[in-house]
Every structure is written in structure tokens, then in C-alpha cells.
Amino acid sequence: MKRIHIPIYGGFLHLCGTALEFTEATTRAIEAQGLIPGEPSAVAACGLTDSMIVDGVVRVYVWAEHGNTAARCHEAVHCAQEIAEHLGMDPLRDREAFAYLAQWFFERIGS
Questions:
Q1: 28-82, pLDDT tens digit by residue?
Q2: In the chain, which end has fewer C-beta atoms inside a 10 angstrom radius, N or C?
Q3: Beta strand 12-15 with 47-54: parallel, antiparallel or unpaired?
């Protein structure tokens, strides 16, 4: 798993190579906070995104099927939504900032 600092907004992007790696990474992060993880999603066909705050830092976890541009785009938007939610950004009001944020995620997912 590759970890990348998210510029401007802070936090970290965790790029997972497989759905299993995604599930294991998010489960470990949840358990490290003393919480009990829920059941992993079985409906994900080609991508997964989740986020949490660990030690006051936003962490976004993502997996997108290798070579699937549509999945990369889809998950990039979810990643941007996660950051927007944590920061109180309104994607409809802050459209340009949100678009650049989604683009930043897209460029890193699958890289």
C-alpha cells in the first residue's frame, strides 16, 4: 500500500492494490482506534473508498480495479467527497476547488 500526503487540505491518501488490501488496511485502522469494524462490503465490483480520522488526521483509503479508467474516476470523486465532508466544503458552492481535488485524486489512483 502506498501512502501519499494530500496537499493543501492535509491528510493522507492510502492507495491499495487490491480489494483485500483495502479491507485489511481499513480494518486495521478501525481496530487501532479501539473500534469494531463492520462487515466488508461485498457489492464492490471494481472499486472501494473509505475515510476516517486517525489521531486528528484524515486518512482516505481507496482501491480501484487496475486499468479501469471509469473506476478510477468514480473512486476519485468519492475521495474528493470524503475530504469535502471532513472539511465542511460544499462541492456545489466550491465547484472549482472540488474539481481540482477530484482531479488530484484521479491522477494518483492507479498510478
A1: 888 888 877 666 555 557 999 999 988 889 999 999 999 999 999 999 999 999 9
A2: C
A3: unpaired
Q: How far is CA 94 from the centre of its chain?
A: 20
Q: What is the pTM (predicted TM-score) of this model?
A: 0.89
Phi then psi dihedrals of residue 90, to 5 deg: -100, 110
Extract the runs of DSSP E, i.e. beta strands, from 6-77.
Answer: 12-15, 47-54, 57-64
Decide: helix, strand or coil at residue 87. helix
| CA dist., res. 5 & res. 90, Å (int) | 22
